[in-house]
Amino acid sequence: MLSSLSSTISRLNLFCPKPSIPHSLSSCLKTLKPQPIIPRWSCLHSLSTHSTSRLSTSLKPQFDALVSKDDLVVLGIETSCDDTAAAVVRGNGEILSQVVSSQADLLAKYGGVAPKMAEEAHSQVIDQVVQEALDKANLTARNLSAVAVTIGPGLSLCLRVGVRKARKLAGSFNLPIIGIHHMEAHCLVARLIERELEFPFMALLISGGHNLLILAHDLGHYIQLGTTIDDAIGEAYDKTAKWLGLDMSRSGGPALEELAQEGDAESIKFSTPMKQHRDCNFSYAGLKTQVRLAIGSHNINPEIPISSASSQDRRSRADIAASFQRVAVLHLEERCDRAIEWARKIEPSIKHLVVSGGVASNQYVRARLDHVVKKNNLQLVCPPPKLCTDNGVMVAWTGIEHFCMGRFDPPPPADEHEDYVYDLRPRWPLGEEYAEGRSEARSLRTARIHPSLTSIIQASLQQQ
Ligand code: KG4
Ligand code: ZN
């Protein structure tokens, strides 16, 4: 396993300050040495508290002329799906700027994300979004310590736009670059808003493409307690909203949440997914089918927007929305209950459950999960809605966390060709699966392109 990972590690160039440097990384260190920007690549606070003793002698000189963690200023760029986002964050957690450009028109037109269109939309606004983030922070790229960018998971076409921009900027200004895992960023942004949040903790990450229940042991070290075997909850919200003729311009979730407030959540008895599977995995494909059938039996025409529906029609749609939401979230509640039990067996000291990702901006979701967490004597940490949906702050902050552990790449060449083949990870698991939690209800879509972030980091640590 380790040997099969070594080539991946050298491509990743995640290097950790440790006594001996693996061969695959030494070339990267050589490139680092002559850089005139060495002082900006250092992070006094974290290195001194966590890993100074593990610093290699060949690395040490780079960390002597140190800046403190608080003085780091990192630009985060996020383009993994439909939002083009950038933000500048300081090492002390201060958000200096945050800019998000959403593809409202495209979402409304196509009722979802069309990769090629999304790529074009990202390309059109990326320069402007990044510039605005710098301007709002009253900085130029010269003032940055590093650039962090999402490299996966997500849509390749879209990821490429952000990565190209990040590398161009980092190359021009000789800045280190940090490749970020999108779901780790959703998780770690909780540590920016809740400074007391220490490892280990649990996280439920719920977005358009992912449903993850994880135990976060340490930075970069995650155990996956559960994942979806088909669709993620955000996808189910989006499809249900589309079939109910709702306004899709902000994606389906917010519109469905609003309509559900008018409906009777008990009116339609959708069955809760995966009742018979005593694990922590999720499934939303069956619920989607149930919703579709209900829409058909209530004679709802998705072509008629909700704004033009008769009052009786609107009432039926609201009932479906509320009933869907109740069951979709009940599924989360049941899985979280079990995951807390499992996580406590592994790490009895956990105190927090983080809930993040776009769907975590939903007030009903937050309230129901708060109930679960209180029942289990834990604390809920849920970032504010703007930091739950895709944003650049989470990317910048995760960049800061890794940068302070010495995990970053050297600046790309200033003259890197536009056709350079970037290291993108459209399908990239976050952690290793919890062995005892393996489900018989396995997805056929488990083929991996990349080893998980955790396995890469663990392998690089063991090699040193
Ligand atoms: O994390 P995110 O912004 O992007 C992805 O990584 O996918 O999550 C987007 C998902 C979409 O499916 C969207 O409908 C859902 O989050 N979402 C919501 C709400 N706001 C966004 N779902 C339910 N209620 C909301 N208020
Ligand atoms: Zn996301």
Strand order of the largest sheet: 10-9-6-7-8-11
Q: What can be said about the biggest beta sheet?
A: 6 strands, mixed
The count of DSSP E runs of length 2 or more, i.e. the number of strands, is: 11
Strand residues, percent: 5-15%
Secondary structure tally, helices: 16
Low-confidence stretches at least 5 residues in length (pLDDT < 50)? 1-65
Oligomer: single chain
Distance between the termini: 16 Å
Radius of gyration: 22 Å
Shape: globular
Bound molecules: 5'-O-[(R)-(carboxyoxy)(hydroxy)phosphoryl]adenosine, zinc ion
Fraction of residues in helix: 40-55%
Q: What pattern of helices and strands is seen along the backbone? A: HHHHEEEHHEHEHEEEHHHHEHEHHEH
Structural class, please?
alpha/beta
Average pLDDT level: 86
